[in-house]
């Protein structure tokens, strides 16, 4: 809000700034949704903490168009999210994005998992149930100073996450080829010899 506030009121931009950024997996490319970020005031570590969930603007269930069909209109090609959530953006640029409004000051930024008990009416963020933090619980190495009305960018790269898939990999589990007879531990002829 800009302009002159009513008597006795203060503009938010006069006292608050924003820590903004994106949470990435270890590869620094893939955005991580559903990680809880906490900004803690360095002057009051226990008393001043503000948090937000990465990707809170992104949908929790994107749906997809490959097998999309509308039972009421099976030939329609306009279905873009059949079976997905009606809430949240489909813009991939916000999949791991976050914004934390904070009073002007200096902050540390850390990540953690959301408690798995926060579901249904107690849910936090777009994912229900919440996911465990896929990386190690870490902090950004430097303090972040925010002035009133200022937005400071602080991207966060998680450490220790598994490697991502590339375009030539499949997420399907393929059955293993059976071992050749000579590679197996059991002897298929043992029963005949004992007989």
Question: Top keywords for this entry?
Answer:
195 residues; globular; mainly beta; 2 helices; single chain; four-stranded mixed beta sheet
Plain-language structure description:
By secondary structure, this protein is mainly beta. It has 2 helices and 8 strands. It has helices spanning 12-15, 190-194; strands at 16-24, 36-41, 49-53, 97-103, 105-112, 144-146, 151-153, 156-157. Strands 1, 4, 7 and 8 form a 4-stranded mixed β-sheet that branches. A hairpin with a 7-residue loop joins strand 2 and strand 3. The termini are far apart.
Question: What's this, in brief?
Answer:
It is built from two helices and eight strands. By secondary structure, it is mainly β.
- The N- to C-terminal Cα distance equals 90 Å
Instruction: Give the overall shape.
Output: globular
Main sheet properties: 4 strands, mixed
The portion of residues assigned to helices is under 10%
Instruction: Give the low-pLDDT segments.
Output: none
* Element pattern in H and E: HEEEEEEEEH
Q: How would the blueprint of this fold be written?
A:
Layout: H1 12-15, E1 16-24, E2 36-41, E3 49-53, E4 97-103, E5 105-112, E6 144-146, E7 151-153, E8 156-157, H2 190-194
Parallel strand pairs: 1-7, 1-8
Antiparallel strand pairs: 1-4, 2-3, 2-5, 5-6
């Amino acid at each position: 809000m800009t302009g002159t506030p009513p008597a006795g009121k203060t503009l938010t931009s006069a006292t608050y700034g924003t820590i903004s950024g994106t949470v990435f997996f270890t590869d620094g490319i893939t955005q991580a949704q559903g990680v809880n970020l906490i900004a803690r005031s360095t002057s009051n570590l226990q008393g001043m903490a503000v948090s937000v969930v990465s990707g809170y603007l992104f949908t929790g269930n994107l749906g997809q168009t490959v097998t999309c069909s509308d039972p009421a209109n099976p030939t329609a090609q306009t279905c873009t999210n059949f079976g997905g959530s009606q809430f949240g953006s489909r813009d991939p640029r916000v999949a791991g994005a976050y914004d934390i409004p904070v009073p002007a000051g200096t902050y540390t930024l850390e990540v953690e998992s959301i408690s798995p008990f926060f579901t249904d009416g107690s849910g936090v963020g777009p994912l229900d149930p919440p996911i465990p933090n896929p990386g190690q619980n870490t902090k950004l190495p430097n303090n972040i100073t925010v002035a009133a009305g200022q937005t400071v960018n602080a991207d966060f790269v998680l450490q220790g996450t598994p490697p991502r898939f590339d375009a030539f990999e499949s997420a399907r589990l393929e059955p293993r080829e059976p071992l050749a007879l000579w590679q197996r531990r059991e002897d298929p002829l043992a029963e005949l010899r004992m007989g």
